[in-house]
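Q: What does the assembled structure look like for these inputs?
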Amino acid sequence: MRSNKRCNDRWGAACQPRAEGWPDACLRAVSWALLASLLVGCQSEVPYFRPNLVEIEIEQDASEPVTEDQQRLINETMLALFGTPDRPANPFPEDAQAADAQSPLRTFGFDVEKLKVSAGPAYRDAEGNQHGLYRLHCAHCHGVTGGGDGPTAAFLNPYPRDYRQGVFKYKSTFGAAKPTHEDLKRVLVNGVSGTSMPSFRLLPDNEIEALIEYVRYLSARGETEIKLIEYMAAEGEMPGSISEIAGGFPLPVDDEGVAEEEPEEENVVASVMYQWKAAPVSVIHPVSSPVDFSDPESTAMAESIARGEKLFYSKNLQCNSCHGDSAQGDGQRDKYTVWFKWREDLGTNNDDQAEINRVVHQFMDVGALKPRTIYPRNLRLGVYRGGRRPIDLYRRIYSGINGGPMPAQGTVTGIAGDEVPDSEAGGSVRREQIWDVVSYVLSLPYEPLSQGPPQRQGSKYTPR
Amino acid sequence: MKMTRLNVENSSRPARRVCLCIGLLGVAFAWGCNRDNLRGAIPSVAKAKEMRFTLATSDVGTSTEESSGQQRTGWGTIKGQIRVVGPVPPNRVLNVNKDQAICQPGGVAVRGQTMEVDPSTGGLANVVLYALDLEGEDVHEDAQGGKADSIFYDQKVCRYLSHVLPMQSSQTLEVKNSDTVSHNTQIQAKRGRSINENIPPGSSIKYSPGKEEKEPISVSCAVHPWMKAYLLPRDNGYFAATAKDGSFVIENLPAGIDLSVQAWQEKLGKNFDGIKVNGEPVTWKRGRIALNLKPDETVTLDVEIPAAAFQ
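A:
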């Protein structure tokens, strides 16, 4: 409390209430209160992993909701297994017993040292090493939890990736397989063209490596949580004891270090980590290309482009049904990706606006972003989110885009490339023909749209 | 604080209101900025610690198989009929916005198949029922898993010809496209294999789920987004989907053991509130029918679902 002696100082006017008008005094008091609340109130919260309330909303039955106690049990399990954003490996530093015990993350196969560098608040230590990489570079868009729900997320289009589904789009592996280490590295180093994801090429290699490990950690954490929620919503209990949930390690691996046997269902974390470990098996090796992409002016390339165009509009591939007759991405635009599965479940055909509004509000109330349909890529811009190398496009066409509507033209049996004969590879076209589609797609940005696509011999396409 | 109050009392009305507003704003500020309604249930640190110590000291991965101690005494059957009582709203008209010549022959409105009620009997088709948690000795040889044959799964006129299809997880689905446009079949499994493959006209692809699912998984087509169906891969043969008249039968279930038979319907999910079984109001918690059969017994379930459940 201010004493009368200090009433003459600069801010002491409140000591002489009758000498000045009350509004000044009142304003001053309120201003002080506001300032105090701003200073005190807003910086007190320690960053925490936000529970996946959207998933609970999706999974729970109207008649058997997941109770608060059940949610707490899930959150406690997550805390015990995956720690906190500041301390992933050891969330209980003050406890000597906890500090000595081996972190479960080590058992799960994470490089804990890398996680430590990425986790926590951003600062530079005395040696000049950067700490808190994730919060420095990623969290504002991807969120502390990796839910793609950082403060800037709502303003971006496309939305930042939500790692918690364990679904990644731009990768070299087939179908729903996880990305390889190199795939994640490529995304970090190159960024994702046409989106808000920048390139982190300027970061030193050890920092990029640390971030990749942290993204893997957030993804595995999020997927474990989803599996626990699914189980809890269906059965009203956890899939097993904490030892069972964290059990199943070490994963049985073959001579090349690739996981070979899938863990039991109750070994929830192991089931997730197995998918990551098994990813290299699913890498798509292309068949050798009939054309040389380094020589775009060659006759062979012109022929390949012509073949590719036919395929693009053919009944077999029907690329134009989504990418549009002019390949500007203006075909099918009303699908949702897995990140908005709750919206997709309402039905693309649903025209009950009241129901849609109700459900959208229900989900946005628990933290979902406003749902957006996915637009097929405008292929005339020359911007390729998954990479512009011919091999990237081959893989995109061969495998489709995981999580979204883009289907695979190849099958899992054909991923071994030239080692598998065409007769066994399956797929909607011969794999060599995929290279022709790649040629055509790569030529599209250079084709003058204003004149309409050239009417090549045999082309089924007629401009509208 | 005291000063402020004193002043307010002495002041005129509008001015007091202004001051009140500012004050409220201040309170709102102080109150609002620190709250996060997405925080969820706050975990107890002590409990999490305890779990961690359990982990540190236990042999990780040892599972304790609990046995019910019940002995199978024979085999029994459940059968019955699922009917809807009262008028159900018609299925939604699908928005066929593409390839109309093939998908909407004659321009006739196409409706969804969410609720397929037989007008004469009130029977509800496409309800799946499947017995949970049975394995080993408790599975009759006729219901044994491991069937490796192929099931023909066709799509025609942009429609899946089986709307809800239970199958064994070891079986293969031959997904055929009998239309003259391409379809892509996106099967989103939760535990087994997910696919999203393009199927050119007249050709087919093979899909083997590999793993059991606890609930039907969705089958859809990105090219024709109104197409929708469900698959239910199970590890044994204890499943049935109701026929057009709502009838079903699951044979050779183990007797003398507490059974849990899961029911699922596209619109209802597992929520079968307000139903009557054999005339008596019954609750199926989580859509599960609990029973214990006697040897060679056939339990008949005449299930009535009020039409209001589909509103």
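The longest strand of chain A covers residues 123-124.
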